[in-house]
Prior knowledge:
Blueprint: H1 18-44, H2 46-68, E1 72-77, E2 80-85, E3 96-98, E4 108-109, E5 116-119, E6 124-126, E7 132-133, E8 144-148, E9 154-156
Antiparallel strand pairs: 1-2, 1-6, 2-3, 2-4, 5-8, 6-7, 8-9
Amino acid sequence: MSATCSERPPGPARGFTVVELVAVIVLLGVVSVVALPKIDGAMALRQPAWRDQVLASLRSAHSLAQGRRRLVCATLATGAVTLRIASTNPAAACDTALPGGDGDAAYASDSYGIALAVSPAGTLYFQPSGRISSDAAGNSALNASVSVGSETAITVVGETGHVE
Length: 164
């Protein structure tokens, strides 16, 4: 008798059994029940961590301005906080970048796109005297609020330079 196209050649059967498929589905269900809450918990920590980085950057700007007796300019945007310092005192502008701890141009950075806004908008100028102003000359103290996602806003007190 000759073999036709419809006949299966002798050998082991191919494919998965119903028992194997059910076992894989049950295993995936158990893994998702255990792993997903941990992933959600890690995601929930991103906004507070980014707020802490922004707060630390602003406090560093204040300390650097007083410690080095130079004007420090802080630019805040979604995804990055950059600091620049004046090379001389007195100065009308910040002309030297202050890189972050990892050597990156941004003093602090966030790759998750968490919203960051400063009110009133613009650069914060940390004066050598400890004041925070809206201009490099330091003529008017600036009280500002920095919002980071849905976290509690960071308050900047212009006259004293306090950042909380």
